[in-house]
Amino acid sequence: MIDYNNPKFVTFEGVVGCGKTTQSKMLHEHLLSKGLEARRTREIGGTRVAELIRDIVIYEHMLPYSELLLIMAARYEHIHKIIIPALTLNQWVICDRFVDSTACYQGLSDIGSDKVYQLHDEIFNNLMPDITFFIDVPPTEALDRISNNLDCNKFENEGLEFHNKIYQGFQAITKQFSNRIVRIEAAQLNPEQVHMKILQALS
């Protein structure tokens, strides 16, 4: 049984096209159907300012540290204006991407994933999700799912080699943070089947 009266900060991670956005929406709707207060949000974004920063980060090419610091600025707005207030009100928080995405994407540069987590810890006093779901779909299948629906931002425009590196990054941090990250094998499954796996994991 899921302890619905013990709200959690839940994040969803994975490569482009893995279905994490769909799953975050399905979990949010499930919680609302139980009469619970739940907030669904996303990164980069979640607030007006953070959404403006999002447009810069995903469409403009810049130096690695410039990109990372912009993401941290957006996260500062997001955490202090959305996430912490919701948790303080005893609400569930469901977030599409968080620091693990930053570690995998921006950590590809010379910065490295360890530096990303270190900076996150220093700025946000080690605020981490209670549970993170890594929706495990290989890039070949994930990209094929959305081949006609990409918005052509700079990350989605990257080739398969790039997305394979991101995928390998998620696999690595899933092992590194096995106490927090739950791997959901979602290849060849429909959204409802994946959703049921997530509910089972939450119990």
Automatic annotation (TrEMBL):
<dbReference type="Pfam" id="PF02223">
    <property type="entry name" value="Thymidylate_kin"/>
</dbReference>
<dbReference type="InterPro" id="IPR039430">
    <property type="entry name" value="Thymidylate_kin-like_dom"/>
</dbReference>
<dbReference type="GO" id="GO:0016301">
    <property type="term" value="F:kinase activity"/>
</dbReference>
<keyword id="KW-0067">ATP-binding</keyword>
<keyword id="KW-0545">Nucleotide biosynthesis</keyword>
<dbReference type="InterPro" id="IPR027417">
    <property type="entry name" value="P-loop_NTPase"/>
</dbReference>
<protein>
    <recommendedName>
        <fullName>Thymidylate kinase</fullName>
        <ecNumber>2.7.4.9</ecNumber>
    </recommendedName>
</protein>
<dbReference type="InterPro" id="IPR018095">
    <property type="entry name" value="Thymidylate_kin_CS"/>
</dbReference>
<keyword id="KW-0418">Kinase</keyword>
<keyword id="KW-0547">Nucleotide-binding</keyword>
<comment type="similarity">
    <text>Belongs to the thymidylate kinase family.</text>
</comment>
<keyword id="KW-0808">Transferase</keyword>
<feature type="domain" description="Thymidylate kinase-like">
    <location>
        <begin position="12"/>
        <end position="198"/>
    </location>
</feature>
<dbReference type="InterPro" id="IPR018094">
    <property type="entry name" value="Thymidylate_kinase"/>
</dbReference>
<comment type="function">
    <text>Phosphorylation of dTMP to form dTDP in both de novo and salvage pathways of dTTP synthesis.</text>
</comment>
